[in-house]
Write the structure tokens for this entry.
Amino acid sequence: MDMKRPLLFAHRGFSGEYPENSPLAFQMAVEKTCADGIESDVHISKDGKLVIFHDASVERTSNGTGFIKDMTYDELLALDIGAWKSPAFAGQHIWTLGQLLDFCKETRLLLNLELKNYEVFYSGLEQRVIDEVRARNMQDRVFVSSFNHISMQRFKELCPDIETGLLYDKPLLDMEHYIRRSSADNMHPRYMLLQYQPELVDLFHSRGMKVNTWTVNDAENMADMMRRGVDCIISNHPDLLCRVADEVCG
Ligand code: G3P
Ligand code: MG
């Protein structure tokens, strides 16, 4: 019997090969893989622009220094976010959330947008994201997630028609109680937590929650997650992920 084929997502775009969260990494996820969607991360600049980037500060993946919350959009746009990965990728620049949404709409990619509000608590981030998604009528193409579960609770109250997800990366006590307390639609566990507590997949499904797991970068664990019946797998290597899905799920 064929296995259910989960949705296959490119983590920060095709970040295994290209600079994470760059326009090139998003474009290559489309051109070079069969990915159904991309996962990406959003922050707010000093002057209130929603920008696509992973870390709260820019050092690791750009030629600048400082926190996004302290930099204007023009300062952020001046950064090179490609050359750190390889000189061949120099000239990549930060996208706004609007640019990323327009790209997803055009390419018909789904988007898992991670709200990066668990270190810097950006005021009003939830409503700003909702406004951008609604302006494009993309509520059914975007689902959000965050390690900040209070934010996901607020998001759901503000916007019942966009799916929310709880990211977590450590084993928690009494998951049954925790998810009853939450209004989130989906769970986003780090994949090894499902190997540590295999019963969680059925628990989440019994509550009508999808299981969207990350960041699965090797073939063995990709196949394992498919066999466990997860709904979405997020990987830095969406090319490999597509090949494994073809083998395991048919
Ligand atoms: O959304 C899955 C994953 O991206 C969460 O962690 O740090 O890679 O954004 P991180
Ligand atoms: Mg992320």
